[in-house]
Amino acid sequence: MRSMIAALALLAADPAVAGDAAQLEILGFSADGSIFAFEEYGIQDGSGFAYANRYYIETATDSFVAGTPIRVRIDEEMSAIDDARDEAREQGQAIVDDAVLRANRGITAGFNAISEHSADPLRMEVNPRLVFPPIDAPLEIRLEEIGLMPPELCEGLTQRHVGFRLLRISHDPDIATELLHEDERVPESRGCTDGYRIGAIQTFFPDGADPVYAVMIAVRRFGFEGPDHRWIAVPGKL
Predict the structure, then answer these.
(1) Domain ranges for the chain
(2) Which of 183, 190, 194, 210 lies 20 to 30 A from 218 at CA?
(3) For the segment 158-171, what is each residue's pLDDT rounded down to a tens digit?
């Protein structure tokens, strides 16, 4: 068993193969900003199956809306990504209609692709809205990786097993830094993780409600043909 795990680990490190990097689609917010939605999709490494996952998150509690996430995988080789996305979209209409999300998308105040080498993967500071000169305090987010004991399933698959801590840095000396999230363990849904990076910050200023934001975190994890990347979001109020 150990030799099989070691072989898989070597396969993941082989530059001749490639992991599965999910594409990110920020869908938007509900009209009052209480729900944030995004989609990730791609072709699963190893199987070649198309998948599309939709996440609907309550911004006040950082919890999934009942009945979500929506996960679709078409278990046929050479399956079409659009077919998986269409099925996930159809299921999502009962949660928040896509037309509502498009009308309340907000702005992508900052974005760093996982292929970006020159950006700081652990820090992002943005002007929360497209007003110049700025009328809002800067929104600064920092990510710290936390080394954790790997579950038995992940032993030998990654060089390290990590969770993360997410902080909102105050620019006001009278306001303390805010802890947005801190892992005590890595959820099974993330897989065998060995790294994170801040991918984007989406902000939204709804009429008659508090402005909100969502920090998009790229999760790097063990994959069959190389490191895979998936997405999670941590919401908050501005």
Answers:
(1) 2-237
(2) 210
(3) 889 999 999 999 98
